[in-house]
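2024-03-11 09:14:02 INFO receiving multi-entity request
2024-03-11 09:14:02 INFO entity count = two
2024-03-11 09:14:03 INFO echoing inputs for audit
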Amino acid sequence: MNIFVLMKKTFDTEEKIQINGGVIEEDGAEFIINPYDEYAIEEAIKIRDDHGGEVTVVTVGNEESEKQLRTALAMGADKAVLINTEDDLEESDQYSTVRILEAYFEDQEVDIILAGNVAIDKASGQVGPRLADKLDIPYVTTITNLEIDGDTANIVRDVEGDEEKIETSLPLLVTCQQGLNEPRYPSLPGIMKAKKKPLEELEIDDLDLDEDDVEAKTETVEVFLPPEKEAGKVLEGETDDQVKELVSLLKSEAKVL
Amino acid sequence: MSETKEKMFKGGGFLVEDVSAEDVLTPEDFTDEHEMIAKTTEEYVKNEVWPVSENLENHEFDKSVDLLNKAGELGLLGADVPEEYGGLELDKISSSLITEKMSLAGGFSISHGAHVGIGSLPIVFFGNEDQKQKYLPALATGEKLAAYALTEPGSGSDALGAKTTAKLNEAGTHYILNGEKQWITNSAFADVFVVYAKIDGDKFTAFIVEREFPGVSTGAEEKKMGIKASSTRTLILEDAEVPVENVLGEIGRGHIIAFNILNVGRYKLAIGGVGGAKRAIEVATQYANERKQFNTPISQFRLIQEKLASVATNTYANESAVYRTVGLFEQRLGNLSKEQLNEGNEVAKSIAEYAIECSMNKYMATELLDFAVDEAVQIHGGYGFMQEYEVERMYRDSRINRIFEGTNEINRMIVPGTFMKKAMKGELPLLQKAQGLQEELMTMMPEQVDDEPLEQEFYLLKNAKKIGLLSAGISAQKYGEKLEQEQELLVNIADMAAEIYNMESAILRTQKSIDNVGLDKSEQKLLYTQVYVEEAFNRIEAHAKETLIASDSGDSLRMMLGALRKLTRHDPINVIEKKRQIAASIIDADKYVV
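2024-03-11 09:21:47 INFO inference complete, emitting structure
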């Protein structure tokens, strides 16, 4: 089977976000594999182990993304592809990423593509579904169980806490939700082997794209941090009075009514 | 995985020669693979060990065995084992990072360390081909677990005073061992013990003893102050039958194995000390940021900040020194050929070369750890005394580190003793340097120091080396061979040497960082270095004064004290201000940062 994983590097969940001149400060920040993409990588490795084939992890990123790709290889993926947009793109959005991936997948034989449900940074959840649409293959989002039998895939997906069971066919794109599996961490032999596994680096040139083709369709107007959480208020007195006070506060202070 | 370096450094050479920044290994030189190995170890500890911490503390050692097996699957037991015997044969940096991260596991880190270190390494370094084939593959996977049995009820520091005996049986097939080995880590479950015994009452020899051999048993589990998560029992040998092919190394040369394995054990303990200190800073900082008194997070109080900054400063210096030693080992052992690596004596020579560094790292980093956990408890206040808090266990677990693998007192004795031996053998030009120095001091004037970063620190380092040599030289002159009896002076010399090594390692690491990524990104490192050097220099001055006064008198002493004053004259930095800056970054990051 030709198994592909879409991976993105994101800020470490423990990292403090700082904004400098309207941009999120990346200097000195620790990056990790987007946690939802880890589920995708783990699932891909399991599918490969059960059905044979090869796992290729693809990322659109920069030089530094190599570290996360090596981690994916150390976990057990077979090949990695870095589409490095560092020199070509200043601004990019989900459209750019999908356009690049679409071009990449034009030449690939695909049985299944796995992606994270969302990336924990921008959390759009768009890239997977939009790519599936472009490739004209079915997609299922937020999956929590996946069984493949020949060309048929039986899937359980998370629908706001409920389960939905779906049967569909390959080729297929799925996005992975927490609960799908428990991602392994790389073993030391895995880490050593990862050094020798192929990591292909491409630029958009190599995909016959130029900057105009992938120009972002969205514009970032402003970047700001959420307001600091203020201390809560405990209302006192008779329940009726409390309700009245609450309503009035919601109107006058919180201005949500 | 590490860059090969051409220059070879002599053990103890730091005292008489200048080293440049690019010649020392620093944590900033770690590769992505090193980082990944560290991360895997950390995740292993957090996901596998922490959930069963309570069980381990309660002596459920079947859990320890499961954990070690799981560690084996991940490759965390095979780093130091050659590939041909089923190991991963990683560099010393990788195995050191495993040790550092494993320190997060509390007492279980001792089980792991005893297995991969003192348990397995004697066979890795000194086993013959058959022994390696037979034992190492199973030790590398955790299928078999190892322990090390040197100490006896009557012989601790005096290891060679062991009473356990070995006698060849009449058939000449087995040695019959009799005796008791005390406080043996992993003894509840270990399959293989490296045991020291005297053949015919005088030939101190190492043996590989299997638990299943007739006459081998263990005593009751000890009740300990700390590291309760590790098993400690007596190994009882009653007419234990050990096949002659299980003699490890040469008959009568067991001390070579014992002492060299201790050297390795020491620098590994030092690495664990640094890892533990970092954890102590982390839990203390997190607590201080959460805990409010007088409506203020206590991390905003300057005394709390002072504690965090002091511990972190010392951590930085020790971390720099310990990884510098790792770099020395990596370079020396990495340059040995396959044949040399199979030749125990060559390995022993390489390890023994850095006996001074291993001992210094051991006492400095284990005392750092004790300081760190003590302050971490203090920052927790009454909660630090309660078992619900990790810091309570850390405090108890820390204490043994100053005792085992050679007490810190014994390790301090080793340092001046080894320096003297190296000087006598002509390996280090200590005596020449010391003599030249005495002449130089007569005419010496204090130097002007520029404001460039690290300029003052390099100057103080240079003078600290002179002060160390002067004190050691004067006390050697006065006492000659009897200096051995003057233990207080020896300790002063050992402390000065270790402070110098730490100072220099911190300075070079910071210099290397400034060279590579610029001053802006090296601010925290620079602060640590400035504070450490200032404080260490003052400690060195005090040690030197005491040493000189105890070694000299009259006009000659007055002259020496005058020289010391010249050497120590400098514009002190504002340590309080710098520590506040150091603490600000730690409090902001919620952990130790560099």
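2024-03-11 09:21:48 INFO post-check: Confidence is low (pLDDT under 50) at residues 1-5 of chain B.
2024-03-11 09:21:48 INFO post-check: The interface with chain A takes residues 32-33, 36-37, 39-40, 43-44, 47, 73-76, 78-79, 88, 90, 94, 521, 588-589 of chain B (CB under 8 Å).
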